[in-house]
Write a structure and sequence with these properties.
About 60% of the residues lie in helices and about 15% in strands. By secondary structure, the chain is α+β, with helices and mostly antiparallel strands. The chain has one domain. A four-stranded antiparallel β-sheet has the order 1-2-3-4. A hairpin with a 2-residue loop joins strand 3 and strand 4. The longest helix has 26 residues. The model has no long low-confidence stretch (mean pLDDT about 90).
Length: about 170
């Protein structure tokens, strides 16, 4: 893939900038736990903080452990994704890894600044609420979805195949 690093850097930078900008707006304009209905009965903006990971995993762990653990895991994840990006020649994988890396960096910035993550997107139906999340979480989810699509629809390649030889066999 030509310009792979330009694509990756642009996607990662856009995700991080959009994530941090939206969090800034939420922190500036909403009080903690304030609910702003966007689509009544379905979607709110709600300022909350998440000390844990997805679905508040490990949110009750001691602060010192939790902070070191999540920062370390985030740094390790970004390092692994960077290695995978370097090896990837497939456009879909580059986009996928870039979304995941951008989301990981966006949430890492929060963890380093606040010791927790700013969440504000709240989906619900009647009394069933999905846990609040943010742009970084959305990017990670989109990146993982693209990885799944790649695994389901792209044939496995041998180590000697390039993007061009694989494309010519489709």
């Amino acid at each position: 893939m030509r310009h792979k690093y330009l694509w990756a850097g642009s996607i990662i930078g856009t995700v991080v900038a959009l994530d941090q900008f939206t969090k800034y707006l939420v922190e500036k304009h909403l009080r903690m736990y304030e609910v702003v209905p966007v689509i009544r009965g379905f979607f709110n903006l709600t300022r909350v903080r998440n000390k844990g990971a997805a679905f508040s995993l490990l949110s009750t762990a001691p602060d010192g452990f939790r902070s070191v653990f999540f920062i370390s895991v985030s740094l390790a994840a970004v390092a692994v994704i960077a290695m995978m990006l370097r090896k990837s020649k497939d456009r879909l994988l580059v986009v996928s890894f870039s979304f995941i890396a951008g989301g990981a960096v966006g949430n890492l910035i929060d963890r380093m600044r606040f010791g927790e993550v700013v969440d504000f997107i709240q989906w619900y139906v009647k009394s069933w609420y999905w846990p609040s999340f943010n742009v970084a979480d959305s990017a990670i989810t989109a990146g993982v979805a693209l990885l799944v699509i790649d695994m389901v629809f792209n044939k496995p390649r041998s180590h000697g195949d390039t993007e061009e030889t694989t494309a010519s066999t489709k």
